[in-house]
Design goal:
Length: about 260
């Protein structure tokens, strides 16, 4: 397995997200590097997909911009290769299962290993179907990050016990996108997860302000922020790195102000 869990050991983790090839190749590389140099512990890189069922309009629009830039799966791997010339920040792909299946599970995961991509988040992969990819991921030391939601209920135990890397805790029902209200049982949800595993938890979906980041990092071991950063890219385009730098520093400071342990 990867060493992702160790990142959460001594402090709360900040995990930002950007879409690959939005608005273009060079800008994506610069955005990832800006995140890495200004406080990101792990960077989540979204592979554009035509039917991103978990994603809201901000990320869907980013996918469309990437398609306009003629993105392909190989483009994403090339972006990672370029990033690796600048930073060794841990990288996680957010992808959908058909992308990996079409490329070939073994070939895809082998390429991830070569480029030091630590794990995959696959929102449309049910727990019951993990067996078709997890053994191959294990061969290459790559984590398949599970998602646990407010509706996971009796499934929490089996999902948590099988988890490696970290657990993506979904903050509220619905799709990604900035929001001001979250599931009011998040603390209890994280407590329930921790009955079954020592694997760290990170809360995502909707978090966008420093205050929210501090709050969520006080509940879990880390916080994931996507749409807010993707929106910066949409507005600033090739000039996004400077704005991302400022935003990342603000979130980093807020997360660091949360308690050291849950």
């Amino acid at each position: 397995m990867s060493n992702l869990s160790a990142i959460f050991k001594d402090h709360k983790a900040f995990i930002p997200f950007v879409v690959a090839d939005d608005p273009d190749f060079d800008a994506t590389v610069k955005n990832v590097v800006a995140l890495a140099k200004n406080g990101a512990d792990i960077v989540e890189l979204g592979i554009p997909f035509s039917d991103p069922v978990a994603d809201g309009p901000v990320i869907q629009s980013a996918d469309l911009r990437a398609f306009k830039a003629d993105v392909h799966t190989e483009t994403v791997f090339d972006i990672v290769a370029a990033v690796r010339k600048e930073t060794d920040v841990p990288l996680v792909f957010l992808t959908y299962l058909n992308i990996v299946f079409k490329y070939g599970y073994d070939a895809f995961l082998k390429r991830c290993d070569e480029l030091n991509v630590s794990s995959l988040v696959i929102p449309d992969l049910p727990y019951e179907n993990r067996g078709e990819i997890v053994p191959i991921a294990d061969k290459y030391g790559i984590d398949i990050i599970p998602l646990i939601t407010p509706t996971s209920g009796h499934r929490i135990k089996m999902i948590a016990e099988a988890a490696t890397g970290f657990i993506y805790v979904v903050s509220s029902m619905g799709i990604t996108g900035e929001r001001n209200e979250f599931f009011n049982g998040l603390k209890d949800l994280v407590t329930e997860i921790k009955k079954y595993t020592d694997v760290p938890t990170a809360i995502g979906f909707g978090v966008h302000t420093p205050q929210q980041a501090q709050q969520m990092a006080g509940i879990a071991d880390g916080v994931i922020i996507g749409s807010a950063i993707v929106d910066i890219v949409a507005k600033k385009k090739q000039a996004a790195p400077a704005a991302i730098e400022t935003y990342t520093k603000q979130i980093r400071e807020a997360v660091d102000q949360s308690p050291a342990k849950v």
